[in-house]
Specification:
This protein is mostly beta strands. The chain is 9% helix and 38% strand. It contains eight helices and 41 strands. Strand 24 and strand 25 form a beta hairpin. The chain binds [4Cu:2S] cluster and dinuclear copper ion.
Length: 632
Amino acid sequence: MTQETTASDPGDGSTTDNEREMLLPQLGVDRRNFMKAGAVAGLMGSFAGCTDILDTDNGNGTGPIDVDTEVPPGELDDYYAFLSGGHSGDVRVYGVPSMRQIMRIPVFNYESARGHGHDDESRQMLEEAGDYTWGDTHHPRVSQTDNDYDGRWLFINDKANGRMARINLKYFETDAIVDIPNQQGTHGACARMPDTDLVFGVGEYEVPIPNDGRHLDDPDHYESVLTAIDPESMNVEWQVRVDGNLDNGDSDKEGRWFFATCYNSEIGLTDAEMTAPDTDWLMAFDTPQIEELVAAGEYEMINDVPVVDGRQDSPHNQSDPIVHYIDVPKSPHGVSVTPDNQYAIASGKLDPTCSIIDIAMLDGIDDPNDAVVGRPEVGGGPLHTAYDGRGHAYTSLFVDSQVAKWDIEAAVQAEEGSTDPVIEKIDVHYNPGHLIASESYTADPAGDWLIVLNKLSMDRFLPVGPVYPENDQLIYIGDDDEGMQLVKDTPAYPEPHDATIVGADKLDPARIYDPDDLELDYITPEDAEIIREDGHVHIKMISQRNNFSFPEITVQEGDEVTITTTNIETTEDILHSLAIPQYDINVKLAPQETREVTFTADKPGVYWIYCAYFCSALHLEMRSRLLVEPAE
Ligand code: CUK
Ligand code: CUA
């Protein structure tokens, strides 16, 4: 148990260690000096009189500290949190409430510890998906059945290169990536509810379609598309072209409406042009109607994708439009649907309000602006909104470095621009982007934890040079009387944008591989062999504590070499790897996993194939020689 992970109240009115530490800056005592003096009971005692300060606000943006976030050694968290890695290109798995980072899942990045991009299969997946070395992940969304997490998949966008990836949550491993045509910058990512039968990629950067050089400096030809992807096949099923651009998105809970914000309705080319008008749009896509048009052939085929015209002057948008363009101020950013499916709430970004759209009113409406039923003023720079399932909305305020908690029904009743619906604000550190409440994207949020993904961390951690970590803060929201309570700072490698918090009991990850789930044939000790044919050497072998099948393997310079390896261990947590120095290869092998790697033996010499996962007391001895004989 450490100072940092404890925030429990001893319950006897005395001050906890954590409270004392949080008081230190105020009292002009730094942590080291405090710790040095820690044995001095007198100093401890001198803090006791300070509990009154703590009961109100300790100046650190926190309220009273009486929330138990401790997950003692040997115990497990209640929730998984999946955080996007931004331009690191990966997804991170945290436990909540401990905020311990448990795992990283490489997606668009090459990563050696998990062998991602190092074995033939994952390398081929990355190459076929555009052959980029990085991506920009923003919105991790876990698949649902009947509006609740079903533990099958996690979908994640690539804002950089217009892609969508799927992570298999049995193995916590990226198993498919689609390079989306006609879309530059897939930003928002979301699935159609209630059963994740479509995954939507929201196209941010408007470009000519097709973008083949025929229109360059002519913004009249710049467009964005919404993309619908089949979650099983990962095929792009259809797209809708729109006016303006698209940013974030969310789906209703009944399989009809998909909402996306647009901050560049004017197709401006500079920031000044993009922010000139007072309103942009929230778009509402009538997805069953779009599917009917696709089925009826009412589309244009562009780069092998059926593209339906959803622009304002499209014939499909005259009566009973397929896309409603709803005016909202001003360069809106996040949009999210309330758990009860009543409202879509768009955050104003450059306007201090959120716009509340009554979803049921959209059906057959003449003027979609009539569906805006509330517009509370929540504070400076509202970006994203999350829900606790008790009728409250939590909106991140980028400019104010705060989170505003407000009452949704009160905001519908109040005058436009009223601040009355705001119940409470809490300081966060600093400049929050997304915030995410536990199971907020389902019909039944848990309503206990809120993670706020702060872009700046400034003075919150030891300095590590000019590249700062982000700060993921944990806030307890389970007690409406006490109010929001900041309980934890967590440094994050750049740069999480969004997260999904899933009850631990809703996932059932495999402990070892099921060989039937893998493409490659399982290799037993008896199967081990070296097959030589016309300049190609195929080595089939096993790995186990503490060796590979062959103590040495001889090949000729210039041979193409394929090594297929099965880790035949059946004990969980006993991993091996197949690392080949100076050949840039490290393939991870979890128990019962088979992987394959192919390379050209173009460097003569002796190379010790070794295992990079520390697997046993004889791990260091787990190595074989690759002997590459020089060509004549
Ligand atoms: S975005 Cu980054 S803070 Cu990509 Cu949802 Cu808003
Ligand atoms: Cu196998 Cu180390």
